[in-house]
UniProtKB/TrEMBL annotation:
<protein>
    <submittedName>
        <fullName>Amino acid ABC transporter ATP-binding protein (PAAT family)</fullName>
    </submittedName>
</protein>
<keyword id="KW-0472">Membrane</keyword>
<feature type="domain" description="ABC transporter">
    <location>
        <begin position="11"/>
        <end position="251"/>
    </location>
</feature>
<dbReference type="InterPro" id="IPR030679">
    <property type="entry name" value="ABC_ATPase_HisP-typ"/>
</dbReference>
<keyword id="KW-0547">Nucleotide-binding</keyword>
<comment type="similarity">
    <text>Belongs to the ABC transporter superfamily.</text>
</comment>
<dbReference type="InterPro" id="IPR017871">
    <property type="entry name" value="ABC_transporter-like_CS"/>
</dbReference>
<dbReference type="GO" id="GO:0005524">
    <property type="term" value="F:ATP binding"/>
</dbReference>
<keyword id="KW-0813">Transport</keyword>
<dbReference type="InterPro" id="IPR003439">
    <property type="entry name" value="ABC_transporter-like_ATP-bd"/>
</dbReference>
<keyword id="KW-0067">ATP-binding</keyword>
<dbReference type="InterPro" id="IPR027417">
    <property type="entry name" value="P-loop_NTPase"/>
</dbReference>
<dbReference type="GO" id="GO:0016887">
    <property type="term" value="F:ATP hydrolysis activity"/>
</dbReference>
<dbReference type="GO" id="GO:0015424">
    <property type="term" value="F:ABC-type amino acid transporter activity"/>
</dbReference>
<dbReference type="GO" id="GO:0005886">
    <property type="term" value="C:plasma membrane"/>
</dbReference>
<dbReference type="Pfam" id="PF00005">
    <property type="entry name" value="ABC_tran"/>
</dbReference>
<keyword id="KW-1003">Cell membrane</keyword>
């Protein structure tokens, strides 16, 4: 068994570096999430937010640094991972919701949500169906279970994607700009679901441009700038007393 490090962090990243070719996108990011934390990650386009989120679940392999879930640490050296099975274990603890929903277009809404529990967790179909129906009802889609994704609005599709992530019972849910692809009138219904999840005590890391969500829902805000954390702290502190010029400029533009 890999070594367990003593920690109260559900998910943590230590000194993550990631380059694409000669471009160093992440220049040493360290971040930890405790149970029930809702961490909003802010930053201008190209600052490395998606890359960081993808490093957390190893969709991108960092050049160096480490990621730990429940104290099981995965160390990256020279952009490689020692043990592929560690990644599979890591991913079982993490859910991900993408900007573009990434639903299976040839499967119904219900099938999209059942797929993970049946295929990955080997859950019996009847049980997976009950689970999926319950989750879809919770995100307000009880009457859409037999529809195909293309028949739904963007907001509905994103709520399916959230139900699909929840079906795997993740310890932490990672969101990458979940409302950025939506028409403005559909943003609220998705934010409402995310707010409910936060109120339930779900641990979430959310890359977002929704300043009201960052300020009112998150427990911690992180501002990424040029591959580094430029500011970090409770939202009221950051928004009311930005310490860096670059973050002050960022929030003044988004008001
Ligand atoms: P953000 O999500 O903050 O907008 P990204 O993490 O997507 O930023 O991208 C950060 C930088 O890394 C950008 O310059 C982007 O072009 C580059 N980048 C991201 N993914 C790749 C990739 N797969 N190959 C090459 N460059 C990439
Ligand atoms: Mg991005």
């Amino acid at each position: 068994m890999p070594p367990k490090i003593a920690t109260d962090l559900v998910l943590s990243a230590q000194d993550i570096h990631k380059s694409f070719g000669a471009q160093e996108v992440l220049k040493g990011i360290t971040l930890g999430a405790r149970n029930h934390d809702v961490i909003s990650i802010l930053g201008t386009s190209g600052s490395g937010k998606s890359t960081f989120l993808r490093c957390l679940n190893c969709l991108e392999v960092p050049n160096s640094g480490s990621v730990a879930v429940h104290g099981e640490e995965i160390v990256f050296r020279n952009g490689r991972i020692g043990d592929q099975r560690q990644i599979e274990r890591l991913r079982r603890h993490l859910g991900m919701v993408f900007q573009q929903f990434n639903l299976w277009t040839h499967r119904t809404v219900l099938e999209n949500v059942m797929e993970g529990p049946v295929q990955v967790k080997r859950m019996p179909k009847a049980e997976a169906r009950d689970l999926a129906e319950g989750l879809l009802a919770r995100v307000g889609l009880a009457d859409r279970m037999g529809h195909y994704p293309a028949m739904l609005s963007g907001g509905q599709q994103q709520r399916v994607a959230i139900a699909r992530a929840l079906a795997m019972e993740p310890d932490v849910i990672l969101f990458d700009e979940p409302t950025s692809a939506l028409d403005p009138e559909l943003v609220g219904e998705v934010l409402k679901v995310m707010q409910d999840l936060a109120a339930e005590g779900r641990t979430m890391i959310v890359v977002t441009h929704e300043m009201a969500f960052a300020r009112d829902v998150s427990t911690e805000v992180v501002f990424l700038n040029e591959g580094r954390i430029a500011e970090q702290g409770p939202p009221e502190k950051l928004f009311d007393h930005p310490e860096t010029e670059v973050f002050a400029r960022f929030i003044s533009k988004t008001r």
